[in-house]
User: Fold this.
Amino acid sequence: MDTFKRQFNTVTLVMIPIAIAINIAVGQLALLLKVPLYLDSIGTILVGVLAGPWAGALTGFLSSVIWSLAGWYTPAIAFAGVAAIIGALAGVFGRAGWPNSWWKAILAGLITGLTAAILSAPIATYVFGGVMGSGTDAIVAMARSIGLDSLGANIAQGTFSDPMDKMASYLLVYLVLRSLPMRFLARFSNLTPRSK
Assistant:
């Protein structure tokens, strides 16, 4: 319980709505531009890395729910559990100090992306018929054209897009962390401090 309370300090409670807004705004932009990435987990990863797995999971979950309920991207709610896992993993990687190193941040993104791809493919296939209305649909269509079934095509798309997306997101979080003063970072108990 003490760990749970530390994750949800005042700074974290202020940061979560900002992170949700970042997730939705950047994710919506990626949808509109039809890029083959999602870019909707940057805020989730930042909160998870700084505050911990529970705070990251809550941020990811709420981002998907709010994005759907607002009517901007209704399919997002089906992936709320995946978004929560992305946030929880960010908390684990933050505790291990991986986001303090650019190459470990990229590795954390790769692992997170592969996990998200495996979890998301069945949802995309069986709930939405493999078509999500995003830039990744072109990759699914290409995979279908070479003979993969819907699940196989969504797995192929996910193993291409998700790792690239999460590696880019973790690298961006790494850059944000490098720019934040140590005094601010000290307010969070999860992130292993970087060397000065």
Observations:
- The longest helix spans residues 150-179.
